[in-house]
Structures are given as structure tokens and as C-alpha cells.
């Protein structure tokens, strides 16, 4: 079975057509243009290469969709592919989420705020010997209520969560798998800064995040690196 996305700009909406072949165009979801900010509308739906990803957030605020590791498409949401690139390029800013790492979160609760844990690099679903030392910035039980239009008022849980930091990059780690589609999910961490403050935000999602993050000033980009959800985007 081949699955693809086709995006078609209309006068007042983007038509997102889920094409499941055999034989034709399937579900059509329309997102009104006024629900997405202007920078999103200027986005070219193409995947960034590794060099481009490594430079994100340095000259303009960016929101990067890590499509291949999208749990909404069945991916494990545990790949560190984007983190690996940021570390290689010596990034010292940005947030990656939501990374599913229940063992690391459990260790973070044992170590407590201000303590440290080690996050293993994950490639092709498997941990390698490379480890990133992380400082524990915040902890949460992961319970929240959606505030965006898609699931407004619905209560959900990410399970125990930890906000970690390695070399300046923050990592939103959870116990349960959920797409990072609503900025309210970050509010589980009672920290003094806001999600919008990050010059680079990486979300493990494909399309659904667009409405939730619609009022963010960040320019939206896409990558298709390591993960189980590989969707070709056609124009």
C-alpha cells in the first residue's frame, strides 16, 4: 500500500489529501488559511537536508516537523536523529519534543530536579553506545487539557515527563506516546519561560500540529529522517 500526502492551495484553504492507493484520492481535510500564520503559508513543503537542519534557528525562529518519527503515524517517537544533528553542529538552543523515553524519565524522577541522567542515541529504533548527559530542568505527572481547537477541553496524559537539557538543547521527554500538536502540552512544566521563547522547536508530528501552533511566529519546516512513518509529499 502506498500512502502519500498531496497539498493543494485554494482561495481560502489548504486541501490536505490523503492518497491511499490502490486507486485514488481518499480523505480530504481542509484547513482554513486564517488558522495558519503567514509564515506557514509561505512554507514550501519539501524536506530539509541534514546540513540545513543543523543551521536552523540561528537567524530566524523555526518550527521543524520531524515527520518520520510521528507517533500519529505509528512511529515510536524515540529517534534522536534531529538531536544528533544539533549536537554535531554545536547548537545551544531549541526544544525537541515529544521524545518517548520512559526509562530516562523514570531515572530523572529518581535523580530529582537539578540532577543528571544519560539519554542514549537511538537509530533505527535501537539504542547505540552514544549517550548524552542531560540536566533535569523540570518534572511533571504529564496530565494536561488540550486548549487548541482540535481537542479543546479534552483531558489527556503523557505519563510521567521530564524536561531535560544537554549542551543548551532542551528535550521534552515523556512516558506515553502522543503527538506534540498543542502548545498547552508544554505547560505541564511549571517553568519561567514560554514555548514561544525557543528559536527552534522540533515537533514529532506531520500535519496536525499546524493548527495548534498557528499563531507562533516561527517559520515552519519539515524533515524526514529516522522513523517508521515515511510519507512522500507531492505538490
Distance between the termini: 20 Å
Largest sheet: 8 strands, mixed
Q: What is the domain tally?
A: 2
Give, in order, the helices and strands: EEEHHEHEHEEEEEEEHEE
Evaluate the radius of gyration: 17 Å
Tally of extended strands?
Answer: 14
Determine the fraction of residues in helical runs and give it as a percent range. Answer: 10-25%
List the quaternary state of the chains: single chain
How would you describe this structure to a colleague?
Strands 6-7-10-11-5-12-4-13 form an eight-stranded mixed β-sheet, sandwiched between helices. The protein has a four-stranded mixed β-sheet with strand order 3-2-1-14, with no helix packed on it. The chain has two domains: 1-35; 37-234, no CATH class. The protein has helices at 38-41, 50-54, 81-88, 102-111, 209-212, and strands at residues 2-9, 13-21, 28-32, 62-66, 95-100, 116-123, 126-140, 143-145, 155-157, 161-166, 169-174, 200-203, 219-223, 233-234. With 235 residues, the protein is mainly beta. The relative contact order is 0.25. A hairpin with a 2-residue loop joins strand 6 and strand 7. Helices cover 13% and strands 36% of the residues.
Amino acid at each position: 500500500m502506498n500512502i502519500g500526502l498531496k497539498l493543494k492551495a485554494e482561495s481560502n484553504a489548504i486541501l490536505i489529501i490523503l492518497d491511499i492507493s490502490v486507486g485514488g484520492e481518499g480523505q480530504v481535510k481542509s484547513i482554513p488559511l486564517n488558522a495558519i500564520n503567514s509564515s506557514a503559508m509561505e512554507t514550501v513543503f519539501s524536506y530539509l537536508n541534514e546540513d540545513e537542519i543543523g543551521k536552523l534557528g540561528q537567524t530566524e525562529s523555526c518550527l521543524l516537523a520531524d515527520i518520520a518519527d510521528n507517533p500519529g503515524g505509528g512511529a515510536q517517537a524515540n529517534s534522536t536523529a534531529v538531536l544528533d544533528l544539533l549536537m554535531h553542529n554545536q547548537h545551544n538552543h531549541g526544544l525537541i519534543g515529544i521524545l518517548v523515553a520512559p526509562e530516562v524519565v523514570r531515572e530523572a524522577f529518581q535523580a530529582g530536579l537539578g540532577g543528571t541522567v544519560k539519554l542514549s542515541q537511538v537509530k533505527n529504533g535501537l539504542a547505540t553506545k552514544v549517550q548524552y548527559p542531560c540536566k533535569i530542568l523540570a518534572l511533571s505527572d504529564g496530565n494536561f487539557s488540550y486548549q487548541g481547537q482540535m481537542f479543546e477541553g479534552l483531558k489527556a496524559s503523557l505519563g510521567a515527563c521530564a524536561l531535560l537539557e544537554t549542551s543548551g538543547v532542551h528535550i521534552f521527554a515523556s512516558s506515553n506516546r502522543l503527538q506534540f500538536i498543542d502548545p498547552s502540552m508544554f505547560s505541564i512544566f511549571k517553568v519561567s519561560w514560554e514555548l514561544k521563547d525557543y528559536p527552534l522547536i522540533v515537533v514529532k508530528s506531520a500535519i496536525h500540529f499546524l493548527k495548534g501552533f498557528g499563531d507562533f511566529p516561527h517559520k515552519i519546516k519539515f524533515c524526514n529522517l529516522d522513523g517508521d512513518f515515511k510519507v512522500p509529499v507531492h505538490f
